[in-house]
Design brief:
9 helices, binds zinc ion
Length: 368
């Protein structure tokens, strides 16, 4: 078993045991409506979230006579209330001029339209993130439910009679679809106040996910790509069932190793920390263990649903089950892409089998 941890949150993120060798910044998180200064012109804010993953960190960068904000919180009352307090107590009468969205999950961009309206701010996000959030919002709830039902059935999940369908529909958390003012791409530089940031595009958790790295000050705004206490959800989605997001995720971790070893990582959840290279190795190692465990288990054809106990201590239900199946398929698709596994279709159900005979303890080809 390669399960490293307990609960999957609503966003699909898992809480493994506390990571070793990370040096957290010796600062308590900012109180509601407050801020912590991390560097000249760089403030750490926290927006509460009405869910198990109960907060998102957002970053406020002083920019001439206004601010650049990284990420927003979701379109929920508790998040709007936090912003009303922050406007009073932190912004000092200066407007948000730019909103930089790391990726298109609702806790990161849900309040972008509302804040953009209030402040006259320009929304920056990757073109992919903008397009995919627009496509999601344009899909009817019925069409989405139908697509998810088909995806789950293909992966061996039988619909439970009478049970509510797995909801993949969180459109209420998006306060609309913001107009895109600018779409940064990998390698762009962004001068903000005293900072000189480089845009680093990463993938796997989300296509078109943008990090920001200030090499001079050794600061990395990591979004959800690198989190200290949580392994970011890496899922195949029903909208792209043949994708290989785990490969993108692992490639992106390798690219982030170019950041300086002493980089202060500013993650979207949890606390800022140093120990980036250790964390990158831990995250990659966690997925490699899971890949090895799957190769050992799939000596005969298995559906993604059947492999859940190999990856997770408990087989989750409802929306969490959808995320868990998505994560299992991400690992299985990776192994198929590596040639270590084969996918067979049998009456509309996909089954995965290791190509070479292998056992759980030895003989399994290394997956990555
Ligand atoms: Zn996310």
């Amino acid at each position: 078993m390669s399960d490293r941890g307990g609960t999957i949150t609503r966003e699909g993120e898992r809480y493994p045991p506390p990571p070793h060798e990370l040096a957290y910044l010796p600062l308590d998180p900012p109180p509601p409506g407050g801020a912590r200064q991390l560097a000249d012109g760089l403030l750490w804010l926290r927006i509460p979230l009405p869910m198990e993953l109960n907060h998102i960190n957002v970053w406020l960068l002083e920019d001439r006579d206004g601010w650049l904000l990284v990420d927003t919180g979701m379109a929920e009352e508790v998040c709007r209330e936090a912003w009303l307090r922050l406007e009073q107590e932190v912004l000092g009468g200066r407007p948000l001029q730019r909103i930089f969205v790391t990726h298109d999950h609702p806790d990161h961009m849900g309040l972008a339209p509302w804040l953009a309206d209030r402040h006259g701010a320009a929304v920056w996000m990757s073109e992919h993130a903008h397009r995919s959030s627009g496509e999601f919002l344009a899909t009817s709830p019925e069409a989405l439910a139908e697509r998810i039902r088909g995806f789950l059935q293909m992966h061996g999940v039988e619909p439970t009679p009478g049970a509510a369908p797995a909801r993949g529909d969180h459109r209420d958390w998006y306060g609309g679809w913001p107009a895109l003012a600018h779409a940064p791409v990998d390698g762009d530089s962004l001068a903000v106040g005293n900072g000189q940031w480089r845009v680093v595009e990463t993938g796997g958790h989300c296509r078109g996910h943008l990090c920001l790295y200030d090499a001079g000050r050794r600061l990395l705004v990591s979004g959800d790509q690198v989190l200290p206490g949580i392994s970011p959800n890496v899922s195949v989605l029903s909208s792209a069932p043949d994708a290989d997001p785990l490969r993108e995720f692992l490639d992106s971790l390798a690219r982030l190793a170019d950041c300086h070893a002493q980089t202060l990582v500013l993650p979207s959840h949890g606390r800022p920390f140093r120990g980036l290279h250790r964390r990158l190795a831990d995250l990659a190692g966690h997925h490699r263990e899971q890949l090895d465990a799957l190769l050992g288990f799939c000596t005969e054809p298995r559906t993604a649903f059947e492999v859940l106990p190999v990856l997770f201590r408990r087989v989750p239900r409802g929306f969490h089950r959808l995320l868990a199946v998505g994560e299992a398929v991400a690992h299985l698709n990776f192994l198929c892409g590596s040639g270590a596994m084969e996918r067979r279709r049998d009456g509309g159900v996909a089954r995965f089998v290791a190509v070479a005979p292998s056992g759980p303890s030895e003989g399994a080809p290394r997956a990555a």
